[in-house]
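In the lab's daily routine, each protein ends up as an entry in a very long ledger. A line of letters takes care of the sequence, but it says nothing directly about the fold. The three-dimensional part falls to structure tokens, numbers that each stand for a local backbone shape. The outcome of that step, for a single protein, is printed below.
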Amino acid sequence: MREGQRIALTGMAVSTGLAALKISVGLLGGSNAVVADGFESAGDVLSSGMVFLGLTVAAKPPDSNHPYGHGRAEILSGLALGMVLFLAGIAIAVHGLLGAGDVTEPPKLYTILPLVLSTLVKLVMMRVKYQAGKRMGSASLLADAYNDGIDMLSALAAMVALGLTLSNPERFPHADHYGGFVVGLIMLLTGVKVARATGLQLMDTMPDQTLMSRVRNVALGVDGVAGVEKCYARKTGLQYHVDLHLEVDPRVTVLVGHDIASRVRDQIKEELNWVADVLVHVEPAPGRYDIPKNMPKLFDIVLDPATAKFAKEPFGDHYLYFDGPTNELSVMVAGSLLLNPGATPHPPHQHPEEEFLLVTEGAGEILVDGKIHKVGPGSMMYCEGNALHGIENTSSEPMLFYYYKWKA
């Protein structure tokens, strides 16, 4: 930030010297184009001052009223710079046209010297500001670099116009005035471009997709991340704030999910210096995953249906409350199913886990141990591991049951 402030102050000093030189030489030598370019340089003093002010305010740390920091002051200074260039361009262009009909003496030959000097100096300043702006991610420094580039073009335009008048005053008596108009027009168009670029940043326009891909790749490289559902970013000054939606195994605890999110945030901030902070949302990943070896066991808790994983199946509404290890068991699965009339969740099957099944609503049939049993509210089934079993709703009303499977 201090580097940008030093560059802005240097730019103010350089522009002040060039403005004074061009305006005085232009007035003494009778060149409207040189005077116009001098006023353009005088505008650069104001623009560099706004850049300095924006960078100074942006350097302030976050507070309770500005939790994202004060970085957008720097973007606002870039927008103000664009507006100043636009208005100054109009004024200079109009002045050039109004004076085009005046009969004046041809400018002096020496009036071209400040324009040559200005072109060389602005070339150096443009490169310094552009490289620093890119490195720092500063919208206002980049805007000021573009402004210096336009200064070079305006100086070249003024030199061409002045050169035509000097080479053939009788044929091109007003070329010098039209040169001032061209300088103003260039400033006007530059102001529009700068204002548009900074305005897009204030509207939270997404950064280049290459940058967003880097954020996704860093997140996917963190252990425990199954996928990235969404990834957004907005510029809040010299850096971006990222909004990231991670997919993790839905069976992990809140504590594990929070740990994964924290590691993702820290890794992104460490590897990508243009990211100020990351807001991570944890989402359940689709599909089924192997239980992580280091996954914490289920602690004492009340499992609420609002937090259960819900799936609307063709045969009914399925809630999966838990699927993972407990303090005593390597695998525990608990869920419920509201079974549609006449439906069965699957043909008779078997699995290595033992299972309890409790019917709380409706009526139907349960196959277990090779026998079919009529069941209703309060009926409970138990089957050992690898025993063939199944259930079917034989009534005209939905049938609700809860099941618990485990393996030691």
